[in-house]
Amino acid sequence: MSQLPALLIVDDDALIVETLGALLDAEFDIYAAPTRRQAIDLVRALPAAPPLALVDLGLPPVPHRADEGFALIGDLLAHAPHMQIIVLSGQSDEGNARHARTLGALEFVAKPADPAYLRKILHDALDAGSAPEAPAATEGLIGQSPAIQMVRDRIGQFADAPFPILIEGESGAGKERVARQLHAASARRQRPFLTLNCAAIAPTLIEAALFGHARGAFTGAAGQRAGYFEEAGDGSLLLDEIGELPLELQPKLLRVLENGEFQRVGETQTRFSRARVLAATNRDLRAEVHAGRFRADLYHRLSVFTLTVPPLRDTGDDRLRLLDHFRAHFAAQTGQPAFALDPAAGEQWLCYDFPGNVRELKNIVIRLQTKHPGAVVTASQLADELDRDHRDSRAGSPPPATESRFDTIIADAMRRLREPAGFSLDDALKEQERGYVEAALRMADGNVSKAARLLGINRTTLYNRMDSLGLPRPQGSAVQ
Ligand SMILES: Nc1ncnc2c1ncn2[C@@H]1O[C@H](COP(=O)(O)OP(=O)(O)OP(=O)(O)O)[C@@H](O)[C@H]1O
């Protein structure tokens, strides 16, 4: 087996993949995929997710736009939260590349890439990703804000509760870390802590992963195997991205939560689990219940105790504490003196929303430490690392938590109406419509009937709208 670190390249341009392969294959074990779907299938099929990915943003079926690349970043991090993602972007989509960082990408490299620079970025990313944090850092929660104090209090209250805990929060806010804290604070702390990411396994394999399987239960099941519920013993089992659990498996999870009973796939013998279940989600599970994608009874069982991890924008000065923490950590790890922020940059740090939460903050610190070791970073140098569009749209001040969705729409409309380029209501509405149609098609994996159901219109209407928006029909489709 290769000792080289694995690198996933996602690009639909075969020539670029070939060129990158030739450039990098002495240093990396390369896996390539041309689309988001194939990339995810590949990651699922590998025994371990590659620690590094180099991704293009413009991917089929919309290669001229960045949406697939944005979605891919979310998908990859859902599968492998510790993967370091570098975006390889054309000069023209630098704004998109910045936004990609908000979504969790570590860095972007403009095409055509200088080979030496690309190598350096990849090796730096690998080092940053593999650097073990001090035990206190992996176990503790950094932050003194009332919102984080509240999370700590809840952890203390819930640590030994006899019910599952549902951990909600935005992507990158620290849900997994909170789950580890819950385990560490419980009487089960000496027992195993296992995590199963429901988004990271093919839906058909989740049941066997959770409950185990008998010998010959399905093709490829050569021997019998215990699942996560057995392996966790009387420790804790974190079911991450619980919203991804297939609907047909949900009754089996409900059963094990209610009375501890489960069966391995292919067995009739009933087994018992004593594991404590923690479940995490960045989806609104209530909305999923409403949409018929998540069972109400399972939701009620899981949500007896719910712990909400606040987004970073609601934790005040904690962004300074996190800056200090990660800066000291990465300076020590690189053996270089730490960077500092000048007063204007410090001000900017305090005003920025960090829409990608702690993960985004951590990645910004890694980039600043790599680019400016020992230096004083100015506001304009820091601005290069932030998601400019996002910052401008909020003018540096986070919206109050009570701001309604309608207020957000009005604020956004006002901003667009002020744009010097002029405004067209028809174009703006068309853009919205296109967004919804594309979202539904993607959620329905291109199945037009399903997408139409999601949109609350019939199939023929959807085809007509797709035609008028200039969206291609999925192959093999016809209006009947
Ligand atoms: N309060 C905190 N103190 C220190 N580090 C934190 C804190 N919150 C999050 N982190 C760090 O931020 C990164 C992202 O956190 P984590 O993976 O727990 O987020 P998540 O909410 O589970 O994200 P996702 O929904 O994408 O899986 C991790 O490196 C984690 O260690």
From TrEMBL:
Organism: Denitromonas iodatirespirans
Regions of compositional bias (Basic and acidic residues) in chain numbering: 385-394
Every Sigma-54 factor interaction domain range: 141-370
Protein's recorded name: Sigma-54-dependent Fis family transcriptional regulator
SMART domains on file: AAA, REC
Domain Response regulatory: 6-126
Pfam families: AAA_lid_14, HTH_8, Response_reg, Sigma54_activat
Keyword Nucleotide-binding tagged: yes
In-chain residues carrying the UniProt-annotated modification 4-aspartylphosphate: 56
Matches recorded under InterPro entries: AAA+_ATPase (IPR003593), AAA_lid_NorR (IPR058031), CheY-like_superfamily (IPR011006), Homeodomain-like_sf (IPR009057), HTH_Fis (IPR002197), P-loop_NTPase (IPR027417), Sig_transdc_resp-reg_receiver (IPR001789), Sigma_54_int (IPR002078)
Keyword Nucleotide-binding found: yes
Region (Disordered): 384-404
Gene Ontology molecular function: ATP binding; sequence-specific DNA binding
Keywords: ATP-binding, Nucleotide-binding, Phosphoprotein, Transcription, Transcription regulation
Signal peptide boundaries: none
GO terms under biological process: phosphorelay signal transduction system; regulation of DNA-templated transcription
